[in-house]
Amino acid sequence: MSTATLPEPLASQNDPSHAAHPSPLWHAFADMSKVPETRVVLERGQGVWIWDTEGRRYLDSTAGLWYCALGWGREELAEAAAAQMRKLATYSTFGDMTTNTTLELAERVASLSPMPNTAVFLTSGGSESIDTAAKIVRRYWNVLGRPEKRVIVSRGMAYHGIAGFGTSIAGIPANREGYGPLIEDVHVVAADSTQELEKLFAERGHEIAAFFGEPVRGAGGVYPPVAGYWPEVERLCRQYDVLLVCDEVITGFGRLGAWFGSAHYGIQPDIITGAKAVTSGYQPLGVVLCNERVQEPFYSGKAGVLRHGYTYSGHATACAVGLRNLEIMETERVLERGAEAAKAMVELFEPLRRHSMVKQVRTEGLLAGIEICEDARKRVPNVVDQVLWQARKNEVMTRNMLGHSLQFSPAFIITQEELRFYVERMLTSLDAVAARIA
Ligand SMILES: Cc1ncc(COP(=O)(O)O)c(C=O)c1O
To answer: What cofactor does this protein call for (predicted)?
Structure first.
């Protein structure tokens, strides 16, 4: 190993009680042999800023895992949770039970939907929403007497969470590997090819239940679709009678400027999955929005009981936080502010685009993927981590996407000054790594 591949130590690693602290915590999406070397323990947040237990400050350029739309430290959300907990923390929504808070959240979410008369199924997060959507589409065709329509089609390098169906339809092959046989009757197509999709639909449309896609592929590296992609997918789905499911776990609730990415691209899917920004991540909550067509067999009595649901489906405290979050988003024009920040971002990111270490900066709404150039990645396999570690030293928290790009998905309330801070500190970090590996 050349010295260039060694991690740049964080200042906090000088404190052995911090870095080498043994912990039984098994981190998500992590190589546990490496985590103790670089672990960061975070403690508090305010706006787009977070602080670790050493008192070190970072600009949170990812809003946690794409979710903290409002920014950190909103007392109102804590109060909404506490008020609900004092009344009734939650109650099961199985069968005919629910709470008023849960009913209100469903109504609020339905009112934002691009589909008329939306029904809202509630879950605890994105992966559960995807599994719910997948089971609903299969059950839908089954009830309609077409059980052969089972195949779920997804896009290359798509991410749909890590539960059973989401793992099975993942377009990121590494996320499927090593688990043995998963769910059958799934098919991945090239991400932007409507030609391939049309060929597949023409040949196998009679057995295809649904097409699942993220409006902008997120965890795969932030890839906006090619021009005209979504309207053409919508047209093909209608022509071949395939249900269209938009996975809006990242794009839902305002990240592209509209409440949903589907509306941003001018399409009306049959189902929309969402999570994350619905509560700004202050509580775990997922949503599955279904149009009238999808609801019909389940609401008319044809399907009987839909034997599906989670202990925390419609969790009242999560719904209370969601309601307050959505209310603040409206009263404080948070979507508009996000859209303004997105516009400023495109211009302010020019110097990043031109940096010798950067291959490409892909943007859409308040999302960006900053791809590190191939030459550096070939020479130094962990170069993206090196930039990330350097960025931490320079007070920016970012995230490595698949070893090629860095994620930018800040809170919608990020200011131009904070955007400038991010760009400056990222340039300094890129310069430092470029000099080290030269
Ligand atoms: C598009 C998409 N779908 C599904 C998921 C899974 O959501 P969760 O991690 O809440 O289960 C994610 C998570 O990032 C996502 O980006």
So the answer is: pyridoxal 5'-phosphate
Do residues 67 and 85 share a domain?
A: no
CA-275 nearest atom, ligand 1: 10
Six-digit token string for 250: 């990242």
pLDDT of residue 20: 53
Task: Find out whether 285 and 93 touch, Cβ atoms under 8 Å.
Answer: no
Residues of the chain with pLDDT under 70: 1-21
Residue 219 CA, closest ligand 1 atom number: 16
Question: Looking at the 3D structure of the chain, how many domains does it have?
Answer: 2
And the tokens for 406?
A: 């860095």
Q: What local confidence, expressed as pLDDT, does residue 4 receive?
A: 41
- CA–centroid distance, 63 to ligand 1, in Å, is 14
Single out the residue of 81, 72, 155, 87 nearest to residue 414, CA to CA: 72
pLDDT for 22: 79
Mutate to test the pocket of ligand 1, among 62, 155, 159 (most ligand atoms within 8 A of CB): 159
CB 59 within 8 A of CB 49: yes
**Cα distance between residue 407 and residue 414, in whole Å:** 15
Centre of ligand 1 to C-alpha 86, Å, is: 30
CA dist 209 and 165 (Å) reads: 13
Calculate how far, in angstroms, residue 289's C-alpha sits from the geometric centre of ligand 1.
15
Tell me which residue has its CA closest to atom 7 in ligand 1: 126
CATH number at residue 59: 3.90.1150.10
Range of the domain at 224: 75-332
Task: List strands edge to edge, sheet with 405-408.
Answer: 358-364, 367-372, 405-408, 400-401
Q: Is 134 in the pocket of ligand 1 (CB under 6 A)?
A: no
3 domain residue, yes or no: no
Supply the pLDDT for residue 21: 62
Among 65, 122, 127, 272, residue to substitute to test ligand 1 (most atoms within 8 Å of Cβ): 127
Same domain, residue pair 338 and 326: no
Domain boundary, last residue among 263, 298, 332: 332
